[in-house]
Design goal:
two-stranded antiparallel sheet; 41% helix; 4-stranded antiparallel beta sheet; alpha+beta
Length: 140
């Protein structure tokens, strides 16, 4: 039986260690990328919910202005039912100087709604916080 030269002994061990370390590094990298994708998907869903909360606040504000004919005092904060649990909207209204259009007075209002995943909007900028703001101009 022929034996290997002294310099060739141990080469397989070094190769095995290199492969183990390389595969571990690739695995750690793939885990990091996977976690980032999951987090990105969660934030995408949360921002869609914040948009819906802001839109709900906008519709509520438009209804209030069209029914009353004027703005309400101060910002209104509204919570939402189970579908948008943990979300709220802060709705403000700005009344502009009435204009005359075709001989008739026209009142113009700007409604701003901010939807977020906090008890009050705008909330503290903490990890996981999302916020969307929408504006609507209503003439009556």
């Amino acid at each position: 039986m022929r034996s290997l030269p002294r310099r060739a002994k141990g080469f397989a061990l070094i190769l095995a260690l290199f492969l183990i370390v390389s595969l571990a590094a690739i695995g750690a990298y793939l885990l990091t990328v996977s976690n980032a994708q999951v987090e990105s998907g969660i934030m995408d869903e949360q921002s869609a919910r914040a948009y819906q909360a802001a839109r709900g606040g906008l519709e509520w504000g438009a209804y209030q202005v069209l029914q009353a004919g004027n703005c309400w005092a101060g910002p209104a904060t509204m919570p939402f039912p189970a579908d948008l649990a943990n979300f709220s909207a802060s709705v403000t209204c700005t009344d502009f100087t009435p204009e005359t259009e075709g001989g008739a007075p026209v009142a113009t209002f700007r409604i701003t709604s901010t939807g977020c995943n906090a008890a009050a909007c705008p909330g503290a900028a903490v990890p996981g916080y999302v916020e969307r703001q929408l504006q609507l101009t209503v003439a009556r």
